[in-house]
Specification:
The protein has 25 helices and 27 strands. By secondary structure, it is α/β, with parallel strands linked by helices. It is globular, with a radius of gyration of 25 Å. The termini are far apart. The structure holds ligand MGD (2 copies) and molybdenum atom.
Length: about 700
């Protein structure tokens, strides 16, 4: 098989090309791209796709603005200034690839583990994500990257309880009579799920938000329970307590499909609503009311659904919180009906052909023990010297689909690491991001409109195809093509390095798996999307993926891994209760969830979207503001021992007392002080899954006078 560049017909009549939104969002929308004379003129949502339903978010409806942005990187470049200064000159692809291959070869001779790929979900595509790139890094024997920055805490907790990340089918959510938005803000981050919630609301459903902040979504719910960040596990224990005490249980489902109910009963007895209310900073009536709403709806045979999201995972006990919440649907039998149960992610629905995509078998030829670096501690790890435990100091980094200088925690350390003159850094990007400023070689990558890809999703159960709509702009190349060329420059002869993007896409899903038996790449490219063969109510009759096949209230695996085998509460690292000394100095909890018009740090440079967000803000409660002499619109300085940032105060009761909220993730270079919320976040990891604790942060805030 040979690598063939896609040939795109240039028709004078507008043509519609079927594409897929590549962004890190559960919705993975089916797109229709209008192309006229080789130019993409419009991107619309496919009206026929069941979850997209013809609707796009503001960001992606502006996709052409991003693609044809004046500051798109169009040529390979090399650094001429010092690191971080962002000064580059254009070079040829040949010079770029030869320089990179030579430098990597040198390091490979000594110890290939000194090379680190750093990537996340700039595109969620299986081809332009971790396929050719991973084949390349496995073949080199580079360090592996533990991709923990987003979902690994909750994912681990969910799997301990239910065995696999399957959950409620989004397409049936409108039939629920009670929907709990637990730590999510779907108007911003999961719009097509929110559309279903709206429909349920029209049909009479009750919608409850559990969120320390009155987010856009919480504001539109019937009830908003504003608990303290990081206390969700306790709230779930309180709900269990009330369900059991008031006998709001589905005993038949419990006896047939769960493990450890007696032990759970004893544990839950320790969590009366009074204790829970105190920890969560809410009222006893809120705990009891929530449990009664949940249990009684199920008793009436109605459909109840919990949308557990990412907001509640980014704290020390984030894994346990999701584990506890995942016990609730089985207690009331909510899994019995389509639309009921719980959704964290649908990502395990997709039988991906990981062995083919990434070729892990290519690793290990150097006879060195493999080394894995956690992306969430990249700050510390870049600054670590060679040692027996750590292995070799990091000498080269290849960054793609990620912007760690803006998004990784404890940014001062991340910046110090990226500023090391002795690290050879290659960045594949669309734009000169905060991270790109630190590149030695900066390579122009294609956007989704310019390359082919195939997608799984984490919010619905359709396989998705992306056709290239236009030719690559300038000299941009797809990630897969760049790694294919690098492999050729390194002299790798394995046939897998000659697979084209279509060759890869054609085998991305395992056709031997019953769910993907009908997968046919050519057909998928024509139709754009296809549902997996998967039941609408995945656990209606049990069938959990745990060792016992049941929903495990008691988990022997957790015990073996050093956790409490039963649901418990793990307090935050930084909170009033868990660290009173720190709270005396830094009394406010700070969270930095996504701004509606940005997608992590993507789109921040799209003018129309940045204009809508304005500038970095900090929402602060009127009482907390008054105590500090802060008035609405004032510039404030937010700080703790790790760093500081400036923002404009919005004095509002949307932030509960004791909480401040800085919607994120801003590019640092667009902020007055060149900083963002990750100045104050820490590199401490969650209880499970080694994930970051972005929302487990104490700060102080003061009015700031701009020096003249
Ligand atoms: N527009 C937009 N959409 C996005 C993204 C984006 O940046 N912008 N990012 C995408 C990505 S990568 C992800 S992971 C998802 C994230 O999207 P969500 O899953 O919605 O998660 P977050 O936005 O992190 O947080 C959601 C809510 O959780 C609340 N929260 C914070 N801490 C806690 C807590 O301790 N407990 C509870 N109960 N709630 C808490 C926050 O106040 C926030 O309103 O969205 C995806 N979609
Ligand atoms: N303070 C704080 N920090 C956070 C979070 C938070 O809520 N608060 N959220 C965290 C979460 S949930 C996540 S998932 C991470 C997200 O972190 P990242 O995955 O790093 O996401 P982005 O910041 O959007 O950066 C993705 C980059 O990939 C580039 N890109 C897109 N497509 C391609 C492509 O095809 N090829 C190449 N080469 N590049 C491409 C984009 O231009 C963009 O600059 O951030 C985390 N950081
Ligand atoms: Mo994420």
């Amino acid at each position: 098989m040979t690598a063939v560049a896609p040939i795109i017909p240039i028709a004078s009549e507008p043509v519609l090309v079927r594409a897929t939104c590549p962004h890190d969002c559960p919705d993975t929308c089916a797109l229709l791209v209008t192309v006229k004379e080789g130019i993409a003129t419009e991107v619309r949502g496919d009206p026929d796709h069941p979850t997209t339903a013809g609707v796009l978010c503001t960001k992606v409806s502006r996709y052409t603005e991003r693609t044809y942005h004046q500051q798109r990187l169009l040529h390979p470049m090399k650094r001429v200034g010092h690191k971080g200064e962002g000064k580059f000159v254009q070079i040829s692809w040949d010079e770029a690839l030869t320089t990179i291959a030579a430098r990597l070869q040198e390091i490979v001779q000594k110890d290939p583990r000194a090379i680190l790929p750093y990537s996340y979900a700039g595109t969620m595509g299986l081809v332009q994500g971790e396929s050719m790139s991973m084949r390349f890094f496995n073949r080199i024997g580079a360090s592996l990257l533990d991709r923990t920055i987003c979902a690994s805490a909750g994912g681990t907790g969910y799997r301990y309880t239910l065995g696999t990340r399957l959950g409620t089918d989004t397409e049936h959510v409108q039939n629920a009579s009670l929907i709990i938005l637990w730590g999510g803000n779907p108007i911003a981050s999961n719009l097509h799920f929110w559309m279903r919630v709206q429909e349920a609301k029209r049909r009479g459903a009750k919608i409850i938000a559990i969120d320390p902040y009155r987010s856009l979504s919480a504001d539109k719910c019937h009830q908003h329970i504003a608990l303290l960040p990081g206390t969700d596990a306790a709230l779930a224990l309180g709900i269990m307590h009330v369900l059991i005490k008031e006998d709001l249980l589905d005993k038949d489902y419990i006896s047939r499909h769960t493990l450890g109910f007696e032990a759970l009963q004893q544990r839950a007895a320790e969590w009366p609503p009074e204790r829970v209310a105190e920890i969560c900073g809410i009222t006893v009536a809120e705990v009891e009311g929530l449990a009664r709403d949940y249990g009684s709806a199920a008793q009436r045979g109605e459909i109840t659904m919990i949308r557990a999201n990412y907001g509640l995972q980014r704290v020390r006990g984030g894994g346990m919180a999701v584990r506890n919440i995942a016990c609730l649907p089985a207690l009331v039998g909510a899994w019995r009906k389509a639309g009921g149960g719980m959704q964290l992610s649908t990502s395990d629905s997709f039988p991906k052909n990981t062995q083919f995509l990434q070729r892990p078998d290519l690793a290990g030829r150097h006879g060195l023990p493999p080394r894995t670096i956690n992306m969430s501690t990249i700050g510390d790890d870049l600054l670590r010297p060679t040692s027996a435990e750590f292995g070799p100091r990091i000498e080269a980094m290849i960054v793609y689909n990620a912007n760690p200088v803006a998004v990784a925690p404890e940014s001062a350390k991340v910046v110090a690491g990226f500023a090391r003159e002795d690290v050879f850094t290659v960045v594949l990007e669309h734009f000169q991001t905060d991270t790109a400023d630190y590149a030695d070689i900066l390579l122009p990558a294609t956007t989704q409109l310019e390359h082919v890809d195939v997608h799984s999703t984490y919010g619905h159960v359709y396989m998705m195809a992306n056709n290239a709509a236009i030719a690559p702009l300038g000299e941009a190349k797809s990630n897969a093509e760049i790694f294919r060329l690098l492999a050729a420059h390194m002299g790798f002869e394995e046939a897998c390095f000659r697979d084209s993007d279509d060759d890869i896409a054609a085998q991305a899903f395992d056709r031997n798996h019953p769910r993907a038996a009908d997968f046919d790449w050519q057909k998928l490219k024509e139709t754009g999307w296809q549902r997996l063969n998967i039941a609408a109510a995945p656990f209606a009759d049990g069938g959990f993926g745990t060792p016992s096949g049941k929903c495990e209230f008691y988990s022997a695996n957790m015990l073996a891994d050093g956790y409490d085998p039963l649901p418990t509460y793990i307090p935050p690292y930084e909170s009033r209760d868990s660290n009173p000394d720190l709270a005396a100095k830094y009394p406010l909890a700070m969270i930095s969830p996504p701004a509606r018009n940005f997608l992590n740090s993507s789109f921040v440079n799209v003018q129309s979207l940045r204009d809508t967000e304005g500038e970095p803000h900090l929402d602060i409660h009127p009482d907390d503001a008054a105590e500090r002499g802060i008035i609405n619109g004032a510039t404030v300085r937010i700080f703790n021992d790790r760093g500081s940032m400036l923002a404009k105060a919005r004095v509002t009761p949307k932030a509960r007392v004791g909480l401040v909220v800085g919607l994120s993730i801003w590019w640092k270079k667009f902020a007055a002080d060149g900083k963002n919320a990750n100045e104050v976040t820490s590199q401490r990891l969650t209880d499970m899954g080694k994930a970051p604790t972005f929302y487990d942060v104490l700060v102080e805030v003061e009015a700031y006078t701009i020096p003249v």
